[in-house]
TrEMBL record:
Protein name, per record: 1-acylglycerol-3-phosphate O-acyltransferase ABHD5
EC category: transferase
Residues covered by the AB hydrolase-1 domain: 106-365
Catalytic activity: 1-(9Z-octadecenoyl)-sn-glycero-3-phosphate + octadecanoyl-CoA = 1-(9Z-octadecenoyl)-2-octadecanoyl-sn-glycero-3-phosphate + CoA; 1-(9Z-octadecenoyl)-sn-glycero-3-phosphate + (5Z,8Z,11Z,14Z)-eicosatetraenoyl-CoA = 1-(9Z)-octadecenoyl-2-(5Z,8Z,11Z,14Z)-eicosatetraenoyl-sn-glycero-3-phosphate + CoA; a 1-acyl-sn-glycero-3-phosphate + an acyl-CoA = a 1,2-diacyl-sn-glycero-3-phosphate + CoA; 1-(9Z-octadecenoyl)-sn-glycero-3-phosphate + (9Z)-octadecenoyl-CoA = 1,2-di-(9Z-octadecenoyl)-sn-glycero-3-phosphate + CoA
Primary location group: cytoplasm
Molecular-function GO terms, alphabetical: 1-acylglycerol-3-phosphate O-acyltransferase activity; carboxylesterase activity; phospholipase activity
Keywords for the protein's UniProt record, in alphabetical order: Acyltransferase, Cytoplasm, Differentiation, Fatty acid metabolism, Lipid biosynthesis, Lipid droplet, Lipid metabolism, Transferase
Length: 460
């Protein structure tokens, strides 16, 4: 299996020498080359025609993602991680990293359905101040490869888990704090069941797929009209099929159907709020590989065929779990209470963010970021003291910088205004973790596959 493929984000930087003949070419202001996932496995002529109809383009997705991430204050690196034949023949996972020099336990982020790395833009700076942070486009989504997943729910779930594990191996991360939102929380939980030795703490933000589907939906939490419409009418289809059916009007569909998404980010991406619907359109107008996998795992839009509520109790007893729910979310938060009663309050922390909906990380980012950082701080070396009952902390060596070109944007970014209103926290408890020793292996030296000649463009 080949090493990580790193890309440069430096402005006006020349391409690094490549170990293989391919080169980059610039045409019409866009860069084409090996910094984009090769869609050869989707090369059927009908699919090419559909791509033209949906106005999708890996280059457009790359460019709009860079514009959104240009609002970050801290530097980041973007690169493909070659995970080999995890699901398809040669899968690659698009990843960004921040503060990889920190010796702290890394935080790894898994997004939800139809999302991508850029939607963490209001969280990444806060998370990366004192620890390494990695965010990936889950296989089948965003800029990652889009292989064909199995149709059987459990097999499909295990394929997602395998892709995360292969990614971890390539990144040479020994253990991590794993944070998943919505569908990402479902995958993160399944990963913790399969690889408990790699998870120091499991943070689940409004996780999907936990409760059992009620026999009468009216007995559960009130579901918004748009969710019920999808569940009852569109269940035989992929959830976001209408966006692709709209073709070149897909961005307009996002703008009109989900204006709330745009409002969540308007304080951060104030120069061009239309970047959000453009990004969501580009993420989901491509081959619906991951979306089809989600469809295979769901019983209907709001519930999983194999609910996690029946399995999460089997997560290794020494792995703490933190749930972060939005008080206004359509996700049923009662699962958190059930799991807390099963595992004991000292191993499960339940937090409710007042006024936040399902996208709790964007609705109240300041509160969400504080909750996540408080959890991560439990594993900071300087806060863990030796005692006869604990193992002394052994700090890992500092990460090895890549010998090849970095993908970091070293240009100082202008500070952006505060991105969130204050939230009120309720129903919180302190998680008592029995794990007091952590160690992360140094990141594997990455190989520069191509230099990205685009400058990070500030949105107008």
């Amino acid at each position: 299996m080949s090493s990580t493929l790193a890309l440069s984000q430096h402005k006006d930087e020349a391409a690094a020498p490549l170990p293989t003949p391919p080169t980059l070419s610039v045409s019409g202001g866009s860069v084409t080359g090996m910094d984009l996932e090769d869609p050869r496995n989707n090369g059927f002529w009908l699919w090419k025609w559909l791509c033209n109809w949906t106005s999708t383009s890996p280059i457009m997705l790359r460019n709009v993602e860079k514009k959104i991430l240009s609002y970050l204050k801290l530097p980041y690196r973007g690169f493909f991680v070659d995970i080999g034949p995890a699901v398809g023949e040669a899968d690659k996972v698009w990843t960004i990293s921040m503060n990889t020099e920190s010796p702290e336990v890394p935080l790894v982020l898994l997004h939800g359905l139809g999302a991508g790395i850029a939607l963490w833009v209001m969280n990444l700076d806060s998370f990366a101040k004192e620890r390494p942070v990695y965010a990936m486009d889950i296989l089948g989504f965003g800029r990652s490869s889009r292989p064909y997943f199995a149709k059987e729910a459990l097999i499909c779930e295990k394929q997602f888990v395998k892709s995360v594990e292969e990614w971890r191996k390539e990144m040479n991360i020994n253990d991590m704090i794993l944070l998943g939102h919505s569908m990402g929380g479902f995958i993160a939980s399944s990963y913790a069941l399969s690889y408990p030795e790699r998870v120091k703490h499991l943070i689940l933000a409004d996780p999907w797929g936990f409760p059992e589907k009620p026999t009468d939906s009216s007995n559960g939490k009130q579901i918004p009209l748009w969710v019920r419409a999808i569940a009852r009418v569109l269940t035989p289809l992929n959830p976001l099929w209408a966006l692709r059916a709209a073709g070149p009007f897909g961005q307009w569909v996002v703008q009109k159907s989900r204006p709330d998404i745009m409002r969540k980010f308007q304080n951060t991406i104030e120069d061009d709020i239309n970047l959000l619907p453009q990004y969501i359109h580009q993420c989901n107008a491509q081959s619906p590989s991951g979306e089809s996998a989600f469809h295979s795992m769901m019983q209907s839009f709001g519930w999983a065929k194999n609910p996690m509520i029946h399995r999460i109790k089997d997560v290794r007893a020494d792995i703490p779990i933190t749930f972060i729910y939005g008080s206004r979310s359509w996700i049923d938060s009662s699962s958190g209470d059930v799991i807390k009663s099963q595992r004991g309050s000292h191993m499960v922390d339940l937090k409710i963010v007042t006024g936040a909906g399902h996208h709790v990380y964007a609705d109240k980012p300041d509160v969400f970021n504080r909750y996540v950082n408080e959890t991560c701080n439990l594993y900071k070396g300087k806060e863990i003291k030796s005692s006869p009952a604990t193992i002394p902390l052994v700090l890992p060596q500092r990460l090895i910088r890549e010998a090849t070109e970095s993908d970091e944007d070293e240009v100082d970014r202008e500070p952006n205004p505060s991105t969130a209103a204050e939230g009120i926290e309720i129903a919180t408890t302190t998680t008592d973790t029995s794990s007091t020793s952590s160690r992360r292996g140094s990141a594997a030296t990455t190989q520069a596959e191509a230099a990205d000649l685009d400058a990070n463009v500030k949105p107008k």
